[in-house]
Amino acid sequence: MSSDRSLSPVRAAYDELVARGSLTPDPAQVDAARELDRVLADLVATRPRKRFGIFETSPQAVRGLYLHGEVGRGKTMLMDLFFAAVPFREKRRVHFHEFMDEVHAGIAAFRKSPRGKNDDADPVEAVTRPILKSGLRLLCLDEFHVHDIANAMLLDRLFSKLFAGGVTLVATSNVVPDGLYKDGLNRQLFLPFIALLKEKTVVADLPSQQDYRRLKFAGQSVYAFGTGPEVKAAMDGMWLRITGGEPGVPGVVESIGREIPVPLVAMGAARFGFADLCEKPLGTRDFVRIAHQFDSLVLDDVPQMDRTRSDAAKRFILLIDSLYDRGVKLAASFAVPLEQLGADDKTAFEFQRTLSRLTEMQSEEYLAKGLRDFEARRP
């Protein structure tokens, strides 16, 4: 198939990464790129025209894609290439559980409103109306996986309205549609959604003999200690290994209506300085968003922490908890050995748990495991 960028932008971007040596060519990934190009071409061909900023015709949903495969097979990388290639603004990409968390929060707010107390009130209509009114055409959901009965009972009505309103779904998952909510309570009520999902998306497998994410860390020392050019060089080398040689570009993480700057983003990984995360007004929800968005993180210049850095130490504890709970791979440089990082009396107990987790996070066993899938915590 031609890799002409105008006809097959996802495949062309994939081929460029292969040509640079950032990726090893994989026939299964090529097939997935072809399906993503099909969705992209259909979206462009059916894009409604705008006049004076208003759509002249209603958005039309096209058949999307549900891409499933085991961890480390390249689903997130392919989604990155696809989303970047979509040439219009009426698109959104978000982790599945974070999207559902927003939906539940919207439903709860509607039910507390005067209108939500009416007998004929429809909370699903209330949360989908603003989404459709925004003109959203493409919804990309990472890691589609249903554990929660509250999500399971909601999905059919929610996505029926989104599809009817012209929204196209592209999703990645570790499981086939028939494996969603497996053995869940009242699963028979969930089956209509599985049928809807199969109708509105092409279900594609991404088989592979390699876990590419695991290969990045095999046999590597992921921590460096001290300061100076040698430590920086070690972190630079680790970054390029994780990204396949891609230097990265600045990015952002959307979190609760604001944007967290990311100094470098490439191939599903992010690179931050300690000050970027732990000396800024960030909290648990921000760190959870970061842990959901990236499978690997490089953290530079972690200092020794004493009572003058109490707030930064608390954020560092929350950051490591979020990365550990998710199974994110961490490469980091520390000014001193782990046992000398220190903490004040207020955080001493929590800091000991953090040191234990940091020790585990550099182990072969931790680095060999995939990301952990868990429901977003609703307040």
Would you kindly provide a brief summary of this structure?
One of its GO terms (molecular function) is ATP hydrolysis activity. This protein is of the alpha/beta class and 379 residues long.
Structure description:
- Keywords: ATP-binding, Cell cycle, Cell division, Nucleotide-binding.
- This is Cell division protein ZapE.
- InterPro entries: ATPase_AFG1-like, P-loop_NTPase.
- It holds the Pfam family AFG1_ATPase.
- The structure is a single chain.
- By secondary structure, the protein is α/β, with parallel strands linked by helices.
- The chain folds into two domains: 9-205, 3-Layer(aba) Sandwich (Rossmann fold); 212-368, Rossmann fold (3-Layer(aba) Sandwich).
- It contains 15 helices and 13 strands.
- It has helices at residues 9-19, 27-45, 75-85, 96-112, 123-133, 149-152, 155-164, 191-200, 212-217, 229-242, 274-278, 284-293, 310-326, 348-361, 364-368, and strands at 50-51, 54-55, 64-68, 91-95, 138-142, 168-173, 201-205, 223-225, 249-255, 258-266, 269-273, 296-302, 329-334.
- The strands form three sheets. It has a six-stranded mixed sheet, sandwiched between helices.
- Strand 10 and strand 11 (269-273) form a beta hairpin.
- The longest helix has 19 residues, at 27-45.
- The protein is globular and about 60 Å long.
